[in-house]
Amino acid sequence: MLRIMGVTRDHKVKADLSLEDVRIGHYIWCWVDFNEPSEEESELLASFFEFHPLAIEDCLHVLQRPKLDYYEDYQFLVLHAMNPDTLSTVEVDLFIGSSYLVSYHKKPLNEVDQAWENMLNGTRNRKIWSQGPYAAAYMIIDSLVDNYFPCVYSIEDDLDELEKLGGRESVEVLLNQVFALRSRLLKLRRTIVPMRDLMYRVLNSQHIQGEKEPRVHFSDIYDHLLKLSEMIDSNREMTADLRDSYISLNSNRMNGIMKTLTVITTVFMPLTLIAGIYGMNFVNMPELEWHYGYYGVLTLMGVLSIWMILSFMRRGWFK
């Protein structure tokens, strides 16, 4: 679907325009949104807008890393929208020219729809529209970044629950949950850190030097991305501490088990030796003919076991 809106010279917004309206130039600037475009609509990127083939290739093919490319009379931005449930990403491409903004995404996105509705309904200051296509670009990027926060907050809630479960679940279960959280944090980091670097490039771009208002808005988005990246790093450190704690706890438990088994084995070693000696059944073994030999050997084994256990207790092996 192709939808178009334009901003008139008195800063009013009109929707449901055609490409012919964009060509005629009755509007200060226009926003053209390619929402789930067909092949014929995608061809308009080359035939109507005459964008660079490399930029068009980035739109049509594999999911790209967030980036900013400069062309002769427009900038090309690759952004990522994120699904809060699955943390999967959807690419959003923006072409920002002096009199137009072209957004391209292969799947419907609530973030883009929200920015579209905000612009139509005038829920923001209308003076923003006088700033040109950067106004709509800011609204789209701001909506994308705002949608990252629920993803991070969800992981923080899971971390709090994991800390509460510390003494009620097995170490294996806790470690599996920690590694799952670290995997989710890694997915977030792969999107948020490149987006942060992208916004840093936009802020330092010579193409918007002197444009005070757009820089203020993009600086606000950059601050949000800085906060998100710091939250992710903090959560990664917390999961690393939890992982090390659970591994140490598991090692301590294993050491306790090994110590108990070692004590039991040590106690039974002399008893096994005695039983092995008198179990050989040689003919010339005088003790075998002794009337009280059986009871004497059992007594010896019992006394030896008690002595060894008391000796281990004095050395603190059972603490």
From TrEMBL:
Keyword Magnesium: yes
Listed transmembrane segments: 261-280, 292-313
Membrane topology label: Multi-pass membrane protein
UniProt subcellular location: Cell membrane; Membrane
GO molecular function, one term: cobalt ion binding
GO cellular component: plasma membrane
Top-level taxonomic group: Bacteria
Signal peptide: none
Presence of keyword Disulfide bond: no
Gene3D superfamilies reported in the protein's UniProt record: CorA soluble domain-like, Magnesium transport protein CorA, transmembrane region
Keywords: Cell membrane, Ion transport, Magnesium, Membrane, Transmembrane, Transmembrane helix, Transport
NCBIfam families recorded: corA
Family classification: Belongs to the CorA metal ion transporter (MIT) (TC 1.A.35) family.
Primary role: Mediates influx of magnesium ions.
Annotated protein name in UniProt: Magnesium transport protein CorA
Gene (name only): corA
